[in-house]
Each structure stands twice: as structure tokens, then as C-alpha cells.
Amino acid sequence: MIPKKSQETILPIITRKFSSNSTISTNEHRSYSNLSQLGFFHQTVCHKYEFVNSSNGVNTQSIESVHNEMKNQIKRRKGVKTEN
């Protein structure tokens, strides 16, 4: 889980976990605004108007579904173990 949704928190995680030139699809949250400048192919969908970008088919529904399932699992287990 990411504690804070700021660029200072999110961008270092993305650059560590993904290769530049990767395609990343997101909503239009401002924390993602510099992904193209970091060498990623960044596609967006504006949830204010649509859930699937009508011009290129970009959506975030699959990952949001995975995220919701993960949150439900964490609730069922009453938290996440933080030690090995």
C-alpha cells in the first residue's frame, strides 16, 4: 500500500519497479503528470467524463478491480504482517 499519493512518493516507486519505455495507464491524478518526462509511455483516462477513453480504449478498471480485491483480503485478515 502506498501511504501518500504524492509525486514524491509515487514516482520513485514507479521508476524502481518499471523499465523506462513501459506503457503506464492511469487516471488523470496530478501525481502521474511527469511519467512521460521520465521516459514512460503514459496513457490516461479522465474518470470525470468516462471510464474508458473513447479515443484509445485506455482504462484502469482491471487494476482497480485487483486493488479492491486486495483491500478486501487485507480487511478479512485484519491487516498486513509487516515483519518476516
Contiguous runs where pLDDT drops below 50 for at least 5 residues: none
Question: What is the count of distinct domains?
Answer: 1
**Shape type:** globular
Largest sheet: 2 strands, parallel
Main sheet: which strands, in order across?
1-2
Give the mean pLDDT.
Answer: 86
- Count of separate DSSP helical elements: 2
Indicate the percent of residues in helices. 25-40%
How many β-strands, per DSSP?
Answer: 2
Please write the string of helix (H) and strand (E) elements: HEEH
Find the structural class using helix and strand composition. Answer: alpha+beta
Radius of gyration: 15 Å
Strand content: 5-15%
Q: Measure the end-to-end span.
A: 17 Å
Protein name: ISXO2-like transposase domain-containing protein
Domain ISXO2-like transposase: 1-75
InterPro entries: IS1016-like_transposase (IPR053164), Tnp_ISXO2-like (IPR024445)
Structural features, described:
By secondary structure, this protein is α+β, with helices and mostly antiparallel strands. The protein has one domain. Helices cover 32% and strands 10% of the residues. It has two helices and two strands, in the order H-E-E-H. The chain has helices at 7-17, 61-76; strands spanning 23-26, 41-44. It has a two-stranded parallel sheet with strand order 1-2. The longest helix has 16 residues, at 61-76. The model has no long low-confidence stretch (mean pLDDT 86).
